[in-house]
Amino acid sequence: MTGRFWYEIASAFGFGVVSSLVPILNSEIFIVGSLASGLLGPVEVAIGLALGHGVGKVTMFWAVRNGRRLKWFAPRPKKPVPDGSWRARWRRWNARAAHLVESPRWGMPILIFSAVTGIPPVYLVVIYAATTKMKFGWFSLWVTVGFFIRCYALALATHWGVHLVI
C-alpha cells in the first residue's frame, strides 16, 4: 500500500463526505471522471466514496435525530388541517413513509436498496430514518455497505468500459 493508494482513498473520501451532504455534487460523475482519466483505481474510489458517504449520512442522521432537541428546531404544535386538503394528504403520506422506514421488516431492506440503487433517494431515507427509532449502529453499517456496493459496481463497469474503448 503506497502513498498514492492512501491519497486516492483520501480524495474519494473527501468528495464522498461533501457529496453526501450536498446533493448537487454527484458521486457517480466523480467515479466515471476519475476512472476515465486514470486518476483513481476502482477499489480506491469505491472504498473512499463509501466511507465518505457513510460518514456524511451518519452526520446527517445524527443532526436530524438530535437537532429536534435544539430550541430553534423544536417541534411546533401542529395546526389543525382540513381533511381533504393537500396538507392532510401530505401528513398522511409522511406518516406512512416514516412507519415503513421504522418497521423492523421493511426498514433495513428499504435503506439497503436505497443505498445500492438510489431509489428512493438516500437523502430522504436518512431524514425519515432519523425521525424513527431505527438503531444508529445498523443504520451506519448498512448505509456504508450499500454505498460500497453501488460505488464498486459503477467503478468496475466504468473501468471495464474504458478498457473496452481503448
Describe this structure in words.
The protein is mainly α and 166 residues long. 74% of the residues lie in helices and 0% in strands. It has helices at residues 3-21, 27-37, 42-67, 86-102, 107-117, 122-130, 136-165. Helix 2 (27-37) runs parallel beside helix 7, helix 3 runs antiparallel to helix 7 (136-165) and helix 5 runs parallel beside helix 7. The longest helix is centred in the last third of the chain and has 30 residues, at 136-165. 30% of the residues are buried.
- Structural category is mainly alpha
Q: Identify the overall geometry.
A: elongated
State the helicity in percent bands.
over 70%
Total beta strands: 0
Describe the largest sheet: none
Strand content bin = under 5%
Summed up, the helix count is 7
Distance from first to last alpha carbon: 27 Å
Q: What is the helix/strand order?
A: HHHHHHH
* Rg on CA atoms, Å: 19 Å
Keywords summarizing the entry:
single chain; elongated; mainly alpha; 166 residues
Structure summarized in a few sentences:
The protein is an all-alpha fold and 166 residues long. It has helices spanning 3-21, 27-37, 42-67, 86-102, 107-117, 122-130, 136-165.
